[in-house]
Amino acid sequence: MDNNEITRLYEEQLSEWDDFRLRVEQLQKVEWKTFDFGTFKIKAQFNPARAVSSNAKLDKASIAKRKCFLCSENRPDIQKGIKMNDRFTLLINPFPILLEHFTLPLNQHKEQEIKPYIRDFLDFAQMMTSHTLLYNGPQCGASAPDHIHFQAVKRGQIPFEEDYKTVARKRILGDDESHADELLEFGRKCILVESASKEKMETMFHLLYNQYQIGEEEPKWNLFVLFEEGIWHLFLFLRKTHRPTQFFAEGDDYMMISPGAIDIAGVFVLPRKEDFDRINKEIIKDVLQQVSL
Ligand SMILES: [Zn+2]
Questions:
Q1: Among the four residues 76, 127, 162, 210, which has the most C-beta atoms within 10 Å?
Q2: The whole model's pTM is what?
């Protein structure tokens, strides 16, 4: 598996799968706005195709009622995959938010949790150097909290990929070579774990997992990982809640904002025109504060 195979899968699916190609063409035409907060940027995307996902009922009963779209027996015949390792498969995401948007499900129907799969996550970042890998916690935006999966999107589309390089940091653990730092003046709580050693990455990850764990459940978070010049950069966006008060408001105060990993990392996905027209720095700041730890 290399970057060429990934490109080939994507190109083949684009040419064979008409509905998918149509959605990618729509995505290339969506409207964007960029908000500059000085130390970081947030982009907003007007994307009506995402209304279904933003409104999805994610409680256990609703999830149990629907057919799992990540299980191989329920996937459309036209959807092809690449074996990532013995456990995971790479698929194109038929409902993309960003260009070259992939889903990486486990080959078995097992619930969304990161702890047993952190090594896979780091491995995939190393294999997919043209892409950014991400993980949505089961209570923090995952649309299939019952089936463990990662996602990948083409690099260069989410502001945090550049923003993190210039923001101030506070060391939490480690030394200059292997460490975890909190990113400061970043608008939301984010811890960045960096090392050239996969073993050290895993050790630090488990330490932070234990530190932020609430009872038996996994910490509420969205994770991103980049592999650049031999170093892993693992971002832990720590969450307080999934959806902000605007999502539950009535009347004029209502906004369809349901932040998952991609939103918290810097791309607010807004399926309604009125929300896209209304979004501003104050609302973004408020939403980030509400949903971040
Ligand atoms: Zn499944």
A1: 127
A2: 0.95
